[in-house]
Amino acid sequence: MIGIDIGGANLKVVDEHGAHIHYCPLWKETSVREILQEYSSADNAAVVMSGELADCFASKQEGINFLYDAVRNVFPNAKFYGIDGKFHTKPVSQIAAANWLVMADVLRFKYPDCLLVDMGSTTTDIVPLNAWETLKGQTDFIRLKTGMLLYYGLLRTPVSSLIRRINPDGNDILLSTEYFACSGDAHLLMEMITSDMYSTATPDSCSTSWNHCLRRMARMVCADVHEVGEDLVLQIAREYVNEENKLITNAVSSIMKKYGCVRIIAVGIGSKFLASYLNAHDLASEMGTLSDAIPAWAVREAGLRIV
Questions:
Q1: Is 149 helix (H, G, I), strand (E, B) or coil?
Q2: Which domain holds residue 10?
Q3: Does residue 63 fall inside a structural domain?
Q4: Rounded to 5 degrees, what are φ and ψ at 62?
Q5: Each residue's pLDDT tens digit, 129-142
Q6: 119: Cβ contacts below 8 Å, ≥ 6 apart
Q7: pLDDT in tens, 180-212
């Protein structure tokens, strides 16, 4: 059995050989079936999804139906994990956005007093592992209201979604709201990730090199790097990271206090970043690259429990 996590931007597969991450932007009509065919020798698949929210679908149910059919085309007996904590064999509404819950389902036994923080390319999930019965049934809309879902990730978040101005010399400079630069650019310029870790498409479809990240970030103040200087461009990146740090820290502190969690564990491609300022245990230290695809790992583990 393999575990599959289908997001809007990435498709992740975990099998007996480890984790496999494919950039799969659904809004560009990337073929999910074609990617899954690479794993068709597996006897079955356990699946979670969040890609049903991609704006290429007129509704979440349309997205569920599309992804369900794509998986079933390759794995006719695939089962889909839902926000009710159960597996389903039909494209029911419960199978939307349950990737965070399956992590809780599997990890709550080993880490019962912990707060799980998962930073992916697009979002950050904050999940109290000691609140299983409370967690079941929560949609992303509910989690946005409670602060358990933050739409800030390591790579794809628009810079202007978090900072609107900088103040380099006592005078405010407003930032453009165009999608000129993203969190991947900010994190690379702050040397928090390397170019090979910047694995999604860039805003201008150019490379993930230092110079291209600088160029994109300079566009946030409608300039070229030589016009405003590298120091100012780096300040934009630094301000973004500082605000991101504050936002996640405050949300984690609030959820931790509310549910009485005593430790934090970090997973996802941003786990090292999270661990550095949340005083968290980075599960990558014991799971390796599986930590970067933990919903796919978790749904496989949950599926194996009921085989």
A1: strand
A2: 2-100+292-305
A3: yes
A4: -60, -40
A5: 999 999 999 999 99
A6: 153, 154, 248, 266, 268, 269, 270, 271, 273, 274
A7: 999 999 999 999 999 999 999 999 999 999 999
**222: number of CA atoms within 13 Å, CB side?**
7
Residue 95 has pLDDT above 70, yes or no: yes
Distance (Å, whole) CA 53 – CA 210: 32
φ, ψ (nearest 5 deg) of residue 145: -70, -35
Domain-embedded: residue 128: no
The vertex-93 CA angle with 9 and 21, nearest 5°, equals 25
d(CA 215, CA 203): 11
Q: What's the predicted TM-score (pTM) here?
A: 0.94
Three-state DSSP at 10 gives: strand
For residue 100, which phi and psi values (nearest 5 degrees)? -70, -35
Asked if residue 27 is part of any domain, the answer here is: yes
The string of pLDDT tens digits covering residues 209-260 is: 999 999 999 999 999 999 999 999 999 999 999 999 999 999 999 999 999 9
Residue type, 226: H
Query: Length of the chain in residues, anyone?
Result: 307
Q: Report residue 160 as tokens.
A: 């202007």
Residue whose tokens read 């089962």? 79
Question: CA-based diameter of the chain, in Å?
Answer: 63
CATH of the domain at 71: 3.30.420.40
Look at residues 175, 155, 151 and name the one whose alpha carbon lies nearest to residue 165: 175
Q: For residue 99, give the nearest of 55, 62, 152, 135 by alpha carbon.
A: 135
